Structures are given as structure tokens and as C-alpha cells.
Amino acid sequence: MIKAGIVGGSGYTGGELLRLLHFHPKVEVTQITSREHAGRYAHIAHPNMRGVSSLKFVHPDTLGECDLLILALPHGTVARNIEHYAGLARKLIDLSADFRLNSAAAYERWYGEAHPAETWLERFVYGLPEINRERLQGADFVSGVGCNATAVNLALRPLVCAGLLERAMIEIKVGSSEGGNKSNAGSHHPVRSGAVRTYKATGHRHMAEVQMVLSCDLPIHFAVTAIEMVRGVHLLAHCYLTERKDERDIWRIYRAQYRDEPFVRLVSGKLGLHRLPEPRVVAGTNFCDIGFELDEDGRHLVLIAALDNLGKGAAGSAVQSLNLMYGFDETTGLEFPGIYP
Hints:
Distance between the termini: 36 Å
CATH topology of the largest domain: Dihydrodipicolinate Reductase, domain 2
Helix content: 25-40%
Strand order of the largest sheet: 3-2-1-4-5-7-6
Number of strands: 14
Order of helices and strands: EHEEEHEHEHEHEHEHEEHEHEEH
CATH architecture of the largest domain: 2-Layer Sandwich
CATH superfamily of the largest domain: Dihydrodipicolinate Reductase, domain 2
Largest sheet: 7 strands, parallel
Number of helices: 10
Strand content: 15-25%
């Protein structure tokens, strides 16, 4: 049984990690940290765990050694303390942006400062199993993924790999949990409720991950808009293809890429309400649903993707990566299909 610790456990991602790992047959969470709630039961911050977990928060300064540490801390924190955390556990998963990029220059460009631990960048594997499965197997240091970047990367990758993408213009709509559990002016209820507010029209930091994963210089642009939703990322991409295709061609491309992926589902039906992906359907799961409609000209493809920002966009991908790090079945602890309605 792997003894795991969750650092920064009082946030939404920390709570999602605790929920997933509590039911993982190969992992026992022995420590979960919180400065604010040290000494209190975890269900104080995560009421869904009341009567389920008897774990109490510990202060980060009292964190002890374990087999695996999963770090759910604010950007910049882990990189400045990486030697400390690496001394407590042989394997680390860092869900912040600190070690997602493989280039110190890219990090400085997108995050506005020199990387605090540049020599560690090459030691981390980007934690998206759909692109890094072999490198994740047996890895000791794994980074988390950006939720918006994951939606873009999974949606566009088949087209890029097939050499079919000419350019893409993307609108991403996100729920309030993407902003974390600390209140700010934008999360104040009278401001946030009912909102359709674009807060990053250009230059989103997750574009750095898109450029890294897709390894292309194609004109890909996305804007991010906050809407009335708690969990979820909804992507709508206007993709322009290099040549005319029909619907069967698109199906073949996406099926070839994802037929063996346990957590990518192709959703493009002709009947029913849910003919295309919807965040509500994947809430609480590790699925990314991808669908499409092809315009009559055969070159304008509208892609739609949906995932849970706390699931496939964070804690779910981390647990999936954990399974690969230890040689477990990749789906272990991630079988929850969501709820409907």
C-alpha cells in the first residue's frame, strides 16, 4: 500500500484528490496539510467526506516522510521548495504550473520571471497520459496539467498529427471553481452569478502548454470566458482544415487517435439532447468528451470538448499518472461515471 500525502489539501483540488484516493485500492492518504485548518477533520473543508474519511489536517511544517507527495499549492511555491519536498518522498506529483514546461525560456516568457529551480525542469514528466504514457511509466517526478490546455490539446491533437489543421479559433467557457476556493472581486456572488465575462481574450498562460504538446507553430488562439457553472470546461473550436474532408474522414482520424484511450470519449450523435459534449455530463469524472460538426464546405470543422477542471483537468489526470508511475491499471480509482441529471 502506497503511503501518500496531499500538500495544500484544503483547496478544491486537494479535496478532489482526497475523494479519489480514499477509494483507490492501492493508495492510503496518511497526511493532508492545511495551515488554516491544522488539527481539524478534513470534512471541515470537504463536507462530502464527512463520515467517509477520519483524516485530520496537519500543519505543513509537521509534514513527514511518505512514499508519494501530491502537491496542490499556489504557483511558484513548489519550485522554491523543491529540494525540501523531494527529501520527504521518492515520488512527487506537482499540480501547479511550476514544472509543466520543458523550457526555462518559455516559463519566463509566460510567467514573467526566471524559473526558481531551472535544473529540475528536465526531471519532470508532463502528466497527460494521452501524450506521455511511456514516459510516465515508472517516473519519479510528474507535473500536473492546465485544465484549459488539456481541453485544447486533446481536442486538436488528432488534426495536428494528421497534418490537417490550418488554424483554429477557440472559445473556452469555464466554471467558478477554476478560480480556486479563495474569494476575490471576480468571485463575489453578485458579480459572478449569471456572468458571461471574458477575462482572458488573448495570451492565456495555458497556451504555453499547447505549444509544447502540439509542437507546432500553427495559428491557434483561444479566449476564456467565465459563465454560470461551478465545475467544467467547455471548448468550442472553429478549425479550418488544409483540405476538404467528409464526416467519415473526421471519425476515422479521431477514432484512430483515441480508440484505446480509457478516458477520451467521442460524442457526436444524431439523436437526443446530448448529441455533443457537455461539462455537466462529465462533472466528477476523469473523462474528456470530444465531438464535432463539419460544415458543408468540408473545411470548416467545429470541435466541441468538455471536461471537469477538477477532474481530467487536475486531480483526475494526477491519479491517472500515479497509476502509470506505479504500474497499476490506468483506470484504478477513476471508474466513477458521473451522475445524471
